[in-house]
Amino acid sequence: MTSLTSFPSPGRLLRHAVRAIPAAAALATFIHLARGGFRGLHTLEWIEAALVGFLLVGIAVAAWRRAMRGSVGAVIDLRDDLELGGGLIAAAFVVVAIGGGELFPIVYLLMAFLVAFMQRNSGLTLLGVALVFDALVTLVGPVPNVSGFATHAAFLALFSGLYHLVLATRMAAARRAESDAVQKRIREVEERARTFRLVSSGTQDSFSGMSSDEKWLVASVKEIEGAVQAALEIAETGLRTHTCAAFLLTSDDRSLKLYDCRSGSERVQRERFNAGEGIIGGVLKRRAPVRMNSPQGLKGVTHYESGGPSVQALLAVPIIEGSGLVRGVLVADRMANEPFSDQDEKLLSIIAGEVLRSIEVERVMSYIRKTRDEKDRFFRAIEELNRAGSPDQVFVAVLESTRHLAGLDFCAVTLVSEVDGKRMHRVVRMSGVTAQGKALEGQTFVDNNGLVANVVRYGAPLPGRDIKAMDRQIIFDDETQIRGLGALKIFPLVAGDRILGTLVAGSRKKAAFEQDVLRMIEVIAIQAAQAVLRAQLYEQMERMATTDGLTGLFNHRTFQTKADEILAQARRYQRKCSVILTDVDHFKSVNDTYGHPTGDQVLKGVARIIKSLARDTDVVARYGGEEFVIVMPETDAKGAYTISERIREAVKAEIFQTEMGPLKITMSLGIATFPDNGMEKQQLIDLADQCLYHSKRNGRNQSVTVAQMQGGRKLAAAAAEAS
Length: 723
What we know:
Layout: H1 10-34, H2 46-71, H3 78-99, H4 105-117, H5 120-139, H6 146-195, H7 212-239, E1 243-249, E2 255-263, E3 273-274, H8 278-286, E4 290-293, E5 313-320, E6 326-334, H9 342-387, H10 391-406, E7 410-419, E8 422-431, H11 435-438, E9 444-446, H12 451-458, E10 487-495, E11 498-507, H13 515-546, H14 556-573, E12 577-584, H15 587-594, H16 596-613, E13 619-624, E14 627-633, H17 637-653, E15 656-658, E16 661-663, E17 667-674, H18 681-697, E18 703-705, H19 706-722
Parallel strand pairs: 17-18
Antiparallel strand pairs: 1-2, 1-6, 2-3, 4-5, 5-6, 7-8, 7-11, 8-9, 10-11, 12-14, 12-17, 13-14, 15-16
Helix pairs in contact: 1-2, 1-3, 1-5, 2-3, 3-4, 3-5, 4-5, 4-6, 5-6, 6-9, 7-9, 9-10, 9-13, 10-13, 15-16, 16-17
């Protein structure tokens, strides 16, 4: 007996190969990152460019597969989430590696997004993946950055968890509120439909996979369509017609369009035709039924195409709403000269009533569809707000969402703050204005009696009356006028017990703000306030974690992390790098003589001077106490000495005004350079510290390099030998 071995087909092998691309791309990228790759855009090698392209292809493949599975209703499993999320995480780490550690918040935002919008198991797994990859980048190498990894891990876990919790809570509350409103509308429509006997019991149960609302809507449509078709069939049979058709007026009331018909002819007019001509035009003008017959054939028949049959008897009944508005006409005709009777007219009038009820249902259906579209836009707006990571992103999202949701012509967001004990308002973003109006962005105005200020003052939407009834429309301040608005509403941005600012919404249409639209904009304003507050807290926490509270410079921990990054780049690309360590001379006597508040004032002033004279690429930090440190990439000892002297001279020239009179201070500075003086960070810091104290021992108020310090020691040793 012979056994045959089955090999996979080429097509199947190709599918497996394509499926493996996302995982392979992410893995290859992180291996290269762990080996010190992607350390600068200007040094990007062809291998790294190829890896980036491979990674983008992997992300595209994962996204395409996820979209295809979603389009056919397939379940998105853990592997699909990990392939797409892993690729995005890899891309974020590449951006951070190229752009520098200050871009690491991109990873925080990406993880918050993934944890919030993917399944919980997928989000937690991706969080673990991000931590593992960060460990590979920060802990693997000659100088493991343990503190940097711990900071990243803490913030990743904190923001992922908080973002998921806040988003889930807010979305649940918003969905409940909107669902209650829609359910109320549906119940009202359902009650009206039952009044007209539009839905029969048991019909809804025949549709599987639909919600109860969807089942009711489908059942009502099917029942109405069936009722109209049955009514036309009855008319065709009972009246012995050649054609029985319902024509409706278009929105401009100038044309008629076929709604439904029963006819033995293929020439019934299915395109729009003039509603004011022929026999039908007379019916619409008179709003009364018309019966006509002629053995020679009727003139003025317009409901057939040219070349249609010759009609010898015709009955037309207008379709009139209870308000007296004409909506269309019901036409019955015969090819033989057999006049329609009074009973025929009565029957066709009853059928016209059935057609009218179907029109009313279509109107209700249109209203429901509009409501659902508004709800979809509303939830998309909420999602956009919750995705926004910075205040600017929040402002853009709230303006775009509000304009699209309510069809507004003008929107603006303002923020309020306290300046010297006074309330100040700032226009942070506007849309729907001219270039001249756009110039108002960033402008501030003091508290006044304008609408924006009053909304902040009272915490309630304004104005409470028609804008045309107002004597003068002061929105921001007296000098800023917004013209051409027919409707205006300003909502407070409320987060807890705080009012952060306002959302200004305006339209040229006078009746733009229906109650439902107002409610949705109000909810968006609440969500926007929460998003602004989250973004501000995020920036504040990031700032607190990386900066010194007194001077505003980087703190010691951030200095250590950034120094590691700069030295790693200098080591990789064989570039020079210098470290300047500074100390305020006789600072203890300043505190003892003038007091600690004056000492703090001195430290702030010194920090300001150092920051202003350092380059944008330099890292300036408070090292501790009265000591400051500057890390200067791609700078040799000569360049570092030049900048150090500028700083020393500027500090020496500064005069600090105190209660005890003017105060002048000096500084001592020590300079060490990589790789001339050392290869490791701590070695460079120790040498810079030795140079600093050499300066202090030799008169203070000077900058000292390692070469100068070593030269001074040689001179001192030679002098000692000579003596």
